[in-house]
Amino acid sequence: MQEVNPAETSRAYAFKTWLKAPMPMVTLIKTLDVTRLRHVGRKRGLKFNMLMCWCIGRAASQIKEFYMLPVGDKLIKYDAIAVNTIVADSHGEISSCDIPFSDNLGRFNEDYLRLTRQVAETCRNHDITDSMVIGTSALTQCKIDGAVGMYSGIFNNPFIIWGAYNRRWFKTKLSVSFQFHHTQMDGAHAASFLDCLQKQINDL
């Protein structure tokens, strides 16, 4: 990770316009077809949430805007991406777990299982500070149409929320909410990411 001069990047105008905005976050909501995800998960014994996180990381890794993030009053460029998941810990509370993204599904799955187990047992967050982290929150016991995340003014990371999926006939649908900082990307980049996420699911 390294600080970059915003004026020398494609985000120059956005950095100047949105960095100090009172509410610089934008949320897009999209319904995904996750039929393939469920099928692969059942067939190979893989967790649905892990597969979602991997597809999110894979889609994000193909869009260059994900590698830059406003941090404080600086624009930081990262070499790697991580995906965060929320873990129910042994104290009955929740903890946060960052998982380094790997294009290799087997390796990502191993890291996911190892790190989430570690966080659950120790009740200590696992944070990765040298990667651009995409936050996720899976409200799997609730059927929701969308959600708007909180803007703390501290964390500018992109964030994805989803609830329980809906099974209808031979299709499984999942509504996701994607929140992002307007300095990091524009709506067109975010929409392209969601389209790419659907493609990664279909191609799994």
Structural overview:
With about 200 residues, this protein is an alpha+beta fold. It is about 30% helix and about 30% strand. Strands 2, 5, 6, 7, 8, 9 and 10 form a 7-stranded mixed β-sheet that branches. Helix 3 packs across helix 5. It has 5 helices and 10 strands, in the order βαβααββββαββββα.
Shape: globular
What do the pLDDT scores average to?
Answer: 94
SSE topology string:
EHEHHEEEEHEEEEH
Helix content: 25-40%
How many beta-strand segments?
10
Beta-strand content estimate: 25-35%
What profile does the largest beta sheet have? 7 strands, mixed
Low-confidence stretches: none
Radius of gyration: 17 Å
| Discrete helix count | 5
SSE-based structural type: alpha+beta
Distance between the termini: 30 Å
List the helices and strands and how they pair.
Blueprint: E1 2-4, H1 12-18, E2 25-33, H2 35-44, H3 48-60, E3 68-71, E4 74-77, E5 81-88, E6 94-100, H4 105-122, E7 132-139, E8 159-163, E9 166-168, E10 171-181, H5 187-202
Parallel strand pairs: 5-7, 7-8
Antiparallel strand pairs: 1-4, 2-10, 3-4, 5-6, 8-10, 9-10
